[in-house]
């Protein structure tokens, strides 16, 4: 795993959606753990342009979530079948990528940035929430869950600048990702590499 010493001035968390139809969010915090940027992105080209041109990114360590692949098989299979479908020799394994549980969206962009020397990592949002004691007490990404997560970030983790009105789920997850990479870089926690996805290390506490 790459050196995670805190020579960068900023720490970026990105909550990545599995398609451009859903919003992705980016959060950047500074060395004082203050939010300096919180924004939403949709198209892959927007994400690529942001990562290559934004001045904050050039001085950041970056943590990006791995979205789940919710693609259906020929438009008729339910997502839950991915977890339970039996495999045998008569079945064409992974036809239409239907057994893929994680989305590889933008992975080529992230790998290129890594190869160019950017400190870039991936994380699983569910594992990260559990590690920080922010498990979903309500159905995940519902309004109750988002309100609970936002209050925890504001009160327990001192993001006092968060507004009273509720932020989108992707923005809250991006804040959590930024806090995670901040804690890793400042030795507040000791991250572990749990696996590698598309050439980039996936970290967790």
List the helices and strands and how they pair.
Layout: E1 10-15, E2 24-30, E3 35-41, H1 44-53, E4 60-65, H2 81-84, H3 107-115, E5 120-123, H4 125-131, H5 143-155, H6 169-185, E6 192-197, E7 200-204
Parallel strand pairs: 1-4, 4-5
Antiparallel strand pairs: 1-2, 2-3, 6-7
Helix pairs in contact: 5-6
Protein described:
The protein is an alpha/beta fold and 205 residues long. The chain is 29% helix and 20% strand. It has helices at 44-53, 81-84, 107-115, 125-131, 143-155, 169-185, and strands spanning 10-15, 24-30, 35-41, 60-65, 120-123, 192-197, 200-204. The strands form two sheets. A five-stranded mixed sheet has the order 3-2-1-4-5. A two-stranded antiparallel ribbon has the order 6-7. β1 and β2 form a beta hairpin. α5 (143-155) packs parallel to α6 (169-185). The protein is globular and about 50 Å long. The mean pLDDT is 87.
Could you tell me the mean pLDDT? 87
Tell me the quaternary state: single chain
Structural class: alpha/beta
Number of strands: 7
Largest sheet: 5 strands, mixed
Work out the helicity level.
25-40%
Radius of gyration: 17 Å
Terminal-residue CA separation: 14 Å
The helix/strand order is EEEHEHHEHHHEE
The helix tally amounts to 6
Low-confidence stretches: none
How do the strands line up in the largest sheet? 3-2-1-4-5
Report the β-strand fraction as a percent range.
Answer: 15-25%
Q: What global shape is seen?
A: globular
């Amino acid at each position: 795993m790459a050196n995670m010493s805190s020579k960068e001035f900023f720490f970026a968390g990105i909550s990545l959606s599995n398609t451009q139809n859903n919003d992705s969010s980016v959060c950047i915090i500074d060395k004082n753990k203050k939010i300096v940027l919180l924004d939403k992105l949709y198209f892959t080209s927007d994400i690529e342009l942001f990562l290559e041109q934004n001045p904050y990114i050039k001085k950041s360590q970056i943590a990006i979530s791995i979205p789940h692949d919710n693609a259906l098989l020929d438009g008729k299979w339910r997502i839950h079948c991915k977890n339970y479908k039996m495999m045998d020799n008569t079945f064409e394994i992974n036809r239409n990528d239907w057994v893929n549980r994680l989305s590889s969206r933008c992975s080529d962009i992230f790998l290129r940035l890594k190869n160019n020397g950017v400190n870039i990592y991936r994380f699983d949002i569910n594992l990260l929430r559990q590690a920080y004691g922010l498990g979903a007490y309500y159905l995940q990404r519902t309004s109750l869950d988002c309100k609970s997560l936002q209050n925890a970030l504001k009160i327990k983790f001192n993001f006092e600048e968060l507004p009273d009105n509720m932020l989108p789920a992707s923005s809250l997850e991006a804040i959590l990702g930024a806090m995670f990479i901040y804690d890793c870089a400042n030795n507040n926690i000791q991250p572990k590499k749990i696996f590698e996805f598309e050439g980039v290390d996936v970290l967790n506490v």
